[in-house]
Amino acid sequence: MHNPLVSILIPNYNKALYLRETLDSVLAQTYTNWECIIVDDHSTDNSWEILEKYAQKDSRFKIFKRPENRKKGGNAARNYAFEKSEGEFINWLDSDDLLLKNTIEEKLNLLISNLILDFVIGNIRKLNSSSKNLEIVPKIRLDDKNIDPVFGTINGTFWVQTSLPLFKRSFLEKFNFLFNEEILIGQESEFFTRVFLKKPFFEHIPNALHLWRITESSKTGIVRKSSFRRKYLLNYLALKMIYINIKKTRGINKHERLFFRNAFNDKLLFLPIWSKNFWDLFFFGTKHNLFKGRFQGAKILGIKVLKSVKLI
């Protein structure tokens, strides 16, 4: 453990505009025993050309394209990068975000100085498209020991961005799978819910160690501008899987049940009646008593039917 290898894992799709800056922030790390594995999701811009130049410049950069037999998307790229990695410690990083130069060193020093820890979480600052350093994200309360991290992950009071933790590889190997490749939106919450359900030992470094870029074309920016209906179509599966994970692992407490009832009722109201998710949610919610009142699901269904035939 004197000089352990750290694997920095980056999924990329069409981020050529910011990719050099991201990779330069990896090169600038004060801790130097790292490998950086980048999995490109078949970008249509000049990302691959940039990646080849960095791989030629420094052998610690190892580049791959997502295998054709894996689902398109960041989740498969993150999982494949982990499969190709060799480090004792793992840190994911998005291809348009930045690390401060001491990010890996500070997290690693804390992690290896306390053998009981499973991972260390850094803090985060927002970054706009011009690389201007903005405010620390206010909703992160990782230093509040009174917050239940599982419930906090689903209600947003304990949000953890994917790039913040430095994990022990041995901890991640306890999972049957890491990122759910079926989920398009909400994979972060689904993943970290499973992480915290294992009751891990972790610590938080309050310094702003990671810069999170939010632009209009970023996935976060696009989702924020989407309608409620679009958001619910995209993130329904993640919420469903989170509910199943919690119920299976420890059972649903009253606070969680109230949260899920509110969330599932809202989704049923906004989802189009002809969508597969509407009917999946209707039967799932009925089975698990996730509607407000005994006949709430049937009432919503009736309203949706009447609206679809323009009777109301």
TrEMBL record:
Pfam families for this protein: Glycos_transf_2 (PF00535)
Origin species: Fontibacter flavus
Q: Which residues form the Glycosyltransferase 2-like domain?
A: 7-133
State the name under which the record lists this protein: Glycosyltransferase family 2 protein
Q: Which domain of life is it from?
A: Bacteria
